Amino acid sequence: MPNPSRRARKPLPPLKPRRAPNTVLRRRLLMSALSLAFVMLTGGVFYRQVIQTEFLQREGEARYLRDAVIPARRGMILDRNGEPLAVSTPVETVWAEPRKLINHLDKIPALAGALGMDAAFLRDRIEGNRDKGFLYVKRRVTFEEARAVREAIAEHGIEGVDFENEYRRFYPGAEVFAHVIGFTNIEDRGQEGIELAYDRVLKAEPGLQRVIRDGRRRTVQQVEQVRPPRPGRDLALTLDRRLQYLAYRELKAAVTEHKAKGGTLVVLDVATGEVLAMVNQPSFNPNSDRSGDSERRRNRALTDVMEPGSTLKPFVVAAALERGVITPASRFSTAPYSIGRNVVRDVHNYGTLDVTGIITKSSNVGSVKIAQKMSYQDLWSLYDQLGFGHPTGIGFPGESRGLLRHYSTWRPFEHATHAFGYGLSVTSLQLAQAYLVLAADGVKRPVTLFKRDPLMQTAAAPEGVRLLSQDTTRRLRAMMETVVSEQGTAKQAIIAGYRAAGKTGTAKKSAGKAGYASNRYQSVFAGFVPAGRPRFVMVVMIDEPGAGAYYGGVVAAPIFQKVMEGALRLFNVPPDDPEPSMMLAQHLQGTAP
């Protein structure tokens, strides 16, 4: 039997295994790391989705949205009848992505050949810009070049080459209008002439649009227009395209015939002061020949000066008539005339001449004697008021002001030389403006290259400033008609059916300190038609004729006759002397007695 003294013992529970401290720590660290990562992820998502939304959208759009330029057309330049003289035509420009093309240098010769470029030169440009994403290869290519490039891309699989649209300036009148119109550079900015002087008016402002482009920079979709393009303003000039062509043809033919160094011709409208034609020789083609000698690009009618010679004698007579120191009947001996140690002579000894005879025969002696009846200031004052020594204000770049020294510096012989056109210098346009005063009954009007609109008060023909009386100018025009006659020095300027008036001038060219060259001349003729009520004024100057003849009546006057005859026909000016025209018609028909 069991011993009661012994208690029954309970069995002990099984012992649980104790966890190692490192295991617990690792679990806690892992949970903390996961919790932290979750918090950071959540925070990052919140930051990007809520706070950085706009920034990320912009950055995303930047990967496929691009701002593209919308080309705008430069303003046109038109003649007085709306005929285009300068226009902008759409063309294509070839560009490349060097960082792509650098891996295909073996295909460069094909691209260069299509563009007519040197392959080595193009390869060097690509290698020199290998990190760039854009490079102009050739701007404003011809239609044939663009087609050849597309064929080369398709045939050789050239990548990184594409096209964009631009405008190219084109001048339909080419060399005929080159000196007046000028030209633009590759960036479409004016470099010469009207293109330069009125660049701010003609200049266009390109537009801006937002587009979607693919990886090859090709436009896939137009999203929006940021800024519309603004084309340049058109300019209407006073030049008449038909008359300009006629004037250029005759001037060029004369310069060639007389083997001259150059020449200029200017035609003005008497009623408005508008320039109807302005041509020069030699000339250049602004469509291609822009890098040649600057001598060819100079607008000589505005930049080159000359001593006007005998063409100033009518103004000496006008000043004397205005002051009452002579009358048309006054007579003067034209024998050689001494002034100090200097002697003034005429080509021939004409004996005694009245004032009309002095103009008709172009007497230096007679003109000097008339001038000596006035003070230095009297003669200088008229020259100054006519605009000699001052720019015309026509607004053309590089215009010369000429030279007219103040009368206080004159000496007796200089007073005399100013009476027959030496000792001062003028441009062809300045001389034409002075003759405009004689043609407009003594009123001086500003000359302009921009068409005046009679419907707009601000652009209407200006009233002008009266310099001479109507009576004086009409008497003087009658005297100058004798120059354009069989008895005058410009009989080759006679225009059948019209009364023409003018004055010849033959001036020796200065040789610097050595005085005047003995064999270098400038042949000039200035005149107007019809003489009774002049409609046009013209000045012609031939520089250094070298074929033998050099007198203004022989070299320059025939050009006046041909161009003015055409101007009268083009502008439908009725004849004012019908009898000669009838005789000419009879002669042409073989019925003249």
Automatic annotation (TrEMBL):
<dbReference type="InterPro" id="IPR036138">
    <property type="entry name" value="PBP_dimer_sf"/>
</dbReference>
<protein>
    <recommendedName>
        <fullName>Peptidoglycan D,D-transpeptidase FtsI</fullName>
        <ecNumber>3.4.16.4</ecNumber>
    </recommendedName>
</protein>
<feature type="transmembrane region" description="Helical">
    <location>
        <begin position="29"/>
        <end position="47"/>
    </location>
</feature>
<dbReference type="Pfam" id="PF00905">
    <property type="entry name" value="Transpeptidase"/>
</dbReference>
<feature type="domain" description="Penicillin-binding protein transpeptidase">
    <location>
        <begin position="263"/>
        <end position="565"/>
    </location>
</feature>
<dbReference type="InterPro" id="IPR037532">
    <property type="entry name" value="FtsI_transpept"/>
</dbReference>
<keyword id="KW-0812">Transmembrane</keyword>
<dbReference type="InterPro" id="IPR001460">
    <property type="entry name" value="PCN-bd_Tpept"/>
</dbReference>
<keyword id="KW-0121">Carboxypeptidase</keyword>
<keyword id="KW-0133">Cell shape</keyword>
<keyword id="KW-0472">Membrane</keyword>
<dbReference type="InterPro" id="IPR012338">
    <property type="entry name" value="Beta-lactam/transpept-like"/>
</dbReference>
<feature type="domain" description="Penicillin-binding protein dimerisation">
    <location>
        <begin position="70"/>
        <end position="220"/>
    </location>
</feature>
<keyword id="KW-0717">Septation</keyword>
<keyword id="KW-0131">Cell cycle</keyword>
<dbReference type="Pfam" id="PF03717">
    <property type="entry name" value="PBP_dimer"/>
</dbReference>
<keyword id="KW-0132">Cell division</keyword>
<keyword id="KW-0961">Cell wall biogenesis/degradation</keyword>
<keyword id="KW-0378">Hydrolase</keyword>
<keyword id="KW-0573">Peptidoglycan synthesis</keyword>
<keyword id="KW-0997">Cell inner membrane</keyword>
<comment type="function">
    <text>Catalyzes cross-linking of the peptidoglycan cell wall at the division septum.</text>
</comment>
<comment type="similarity">
    <text>Belongs to the transpeptidase family. FtsI subfamily.</text>
</comment>
<keyword id="KW-1003">Cell membrane</keyword>
<feature type="active site" description="Acyl-ester intermediate">
    <location>
        <position position="310"/>
    </location>
</feature>
<keyword id="KW-0645">Protease</keyword>
<dbReference type="InterPro" id="IPR050515">
    <property type="entry name" value="Beta-lactam/transpept"/>
</dbReference>
<dbReference type="InterPro" id="IPR005311">
    <property type="entry name" value="PBP_dimer"/>
</dbReference>
<keyword id="KW-1133">Transmembrane helix</keyword>
<comment type="pathway">
    <text>Cell wall biogenesis; peptidoglycan biosynthesis.</text>
</comment>
